[in-house]
Amino acid sequence: MGFPWAILSCASTVYAAGAGTCCSRLSEELGTKVSFLSQPAYNGTESSYWSLQEAGLKPGCILHPSTPKDVSQAVSIIAATDGCNMAVKGQGHAPGAGFANIDGGVTIDMAGLNTTVLSPDRSVLGVGAGAAWLQVYQYLDPYNVSVAGGRNGLVGVGGLTLGGGISHFSPRVGWACDNVVNFEVVLADGTLANANQNSHSDLYRALKGGANNFGLVTRFDLETFPQGDISVSTFVNNVSKRGPVLSAFTDIISSPKFDVSVSLLVSFLYNSKSKAWTISNSAVYTQPVLHPPVFDQLAAVPSISNTSRITSVASLADEAPTSPLNWLFATAAFKPSAEFMLETFEILNNILYSFNPQGGVVWDIAFEPLPSVMLSHAAKTGGNVLGLQSDEGNSYIMLISALWLDSASNTAVEEVSREVLSVIESRAKAEGLLRKFQYINYAAPYQAPLASYGAENFEFLKRVSRKYDPQAFFQHRVPGGFKLVEQSQQELGVSNEEN
Ligand SMILES: Cc1cc2nc3c(=O)[nH]c(=O)nc-3n(C[C@H](O)[C@H](O)[C@H](O)COP(=O)(O)OP(=O)(O)OC[C@H]3O[C@@H](n4cnc5c(N)ncnc54)[C@H](O)[C@@H]3O)c2cc1C
Ligand SMILES: *[C@@H]1O[C@H](CO)[C@@H](O)[C@H](O)[C@H]1NC(C)=O
Ligand SMILES: *[C@@H]1O[C@H](CO)[C@@H](O)[C@H](O)[C@H]1NC(C)=O
Ligand SMILES: *[C@@H]1O[C@H](CO)[C@@H](O)[C@H](O)[C@H]1NC(C)=O
Ligand SMILES: *[C@@H]1O[C@H](CO)[C@@H](O)[C@H](O)[C@H]1NC(C)=O
Ligand SMILES: *[C@@H]1O[C@H](CO)[C@@H](O)[C@H](O)[C@H]1NC(C)=O
Predict the structure, then answer these.
(1) Hey, which CATH number is domain 230-311+322-437, 3.50.50.60, 3.40.462.20, 3.30.365.10, 3.40.50.970?
(2) Crossing angle for the helix pair 242-254 and 338-352, nearest 10 degrees?
(3) Looking at the CA of 296, which ligand is closest?
(4) Where is the signal peptide (predicted)?
């Protein structure tokens, strides 16, 4: 896909007139639920984005729906108004410009749709699509049940679940999306539909990984499971210990008997100003067991600091809000190899060591397990569209994040991230270790995660889009995020790669 900021700066001039008409029609119909520049509600949404790239866009107006009916009314009005484009925001944690905000169009901030209702038998949680995960865990913890959701509490239910969703519980129950038993969703024609295994089952599957390409989800019904307190250890290591850390990581993630209570994240952190690398590990075990033996090898690596505690799901997810910075995510997936991970570190160090853009940049390169047992759970709700098979063996996902203060450095950081990623990918490909999968919630705007699901899933998504959205409203009039239309062009490049 093209650079979203380039597309958007066009859109703001071309569509400004359309947005004006449509904002006034929206405010006639929905009154004070529509806010305008300099009003407190508008300000509230603008200051709730996680990245500066998102917070910097200025919609013509912002809709704050409080019911699914508000959403369906708004979509009908917007779709009927030529030249009026829109964006959908959950908790605003996608870093890329335009993913959940728009210059000159209408932003629909779903955050007010945040009700949580547990079924009487406690087996299903109905949660408003605009909720944050912390609210979900705080609600569920007292009932001794939980759901597969985000690890950081401020992340949104909406974006995380529609893109897949990696949870501490994923090895045990699958991607967050595999645990959705029903989506309540507003379609392009404004109708409110339910998508589940019995009704609109094609749309149901497409929403499990298809992101914002099919509708505005207003409620997710999530399967729960019994859950008590969990164990969390953190280890910080000198980067000179990368050999033993990566061996421990690889041993844990490549085990054919992957322990489904493991939720592990190993990160390399680099600060361009101090030119210093450190290793930070988060070793969560989703049972109340302090020092579980599965982490012994990792815990034995001499650390700069280490902590261990038993805590509740909600308190682990509880984090302090941060003020927005410039952020970039980029991702790839690999077959396990400690040697290749060491080579990855050398590539990172070679390219990043002397790159110190104006204002500095902090890199966080994280590695997380993608075990085959996690993929085996997709079948219980009829499958998702991610294109991952449990018989392909254990893998791991790499998330490259960059954060920096000075927006003047945006292009430079993005270019360096592309270079790093392309060198790592081509080395992995040469060694037969590259998986084709690009996790959409970690993908950079220049990547093609939808095409990475494989030709069959990609064609399926396009068919479902034509069926439920014949005018391609969500392709052309909701331009933010990864679009089926844009990724068609990149399809060939991706599908040539192996697994
Ligand atoms: C600090 C941090 C921690 C993270 N931790 C995890 C983690 O543990 N596991 C993981 O898998 N990912 C994680 N992520 C990635 C996260 O899944 C994505 O950033 C996700 O897009 C965030 O969802 P959101 O609703 O907050 O974001 P938004 O930016 O509001 O939305 C993201 C995308 O989803 C679309 N969208 C949102 N809600 C709806 C809806 N109701 N209907 C239709 N489309 C919608 C938006 O249009 C947008 O394109 C993390 C990200 C951050 C910044
Ligand atoms: C909006 O936020 C800005 C700072 O982000 C502040 O200066 C301004 O006063 C706010 N306006 C309103 C109406 O709240
Ligand atoms: C739910 O959303 C409303 C409206 O935005 C907000 O006032 C309220 O604090 C939210 N509830 C929780 C528990 O976050
Ligand atoms: C949850 O578990 C705790 C501790 O085992 C118990 O005291 C409490 O009664 C349980 N709560 C419910 C609602 O079952
Ligand atoms: C890391 O280890 C090296 C020796 O291998 C040492 O020179 C350096 O001071 C250590 N750094 C920290 C932060 O402990
Ligand atoms: C963990 O930290 C304690 C002190 O808090 C220290 O005594 C111990 O050596 C550390 N473990 C390792 C493996 O470094």
Answers:
(1) 3.40.462.20
(2) 130
(3) 6
(4) 1-16
Task: State both tokens at 351.
Answer: 């390219």
- Chain-centre distance for alpha carbon 354: 30
Mean pLDDT confidence for 451-474: 98
C-alpha 112 – ligand 3 centre gap (Å): 6
Which numbered atom of ligand 1 lies nearest the CA of 88? 47
Average pLDDT over residues 283-301: 98
43: part of which helix (H) or strand (E)? helix 40-46
Q: Is the pTM of this model over 0.90?
A: yes
Q: Contact at 8 Å (CB) between 89 and 108?
A: yes
Q: H or E element: which one contains 218?
A: strand 216-223
Any atom of ligand 5 within 6 Å of the Cβ of 238: yes
Ligand with the closest atom to the CA of 226: 4
Q: Which of 144, 145, 227, 312 to mutate to test the pocket of ligand 4 (most atoms within 8 A of CB)?
A: 144
d(CA 50, CA 459): 33
Contact between residue 298 and residue 181 where contact means Cβ atoms under 8 Å apart: no
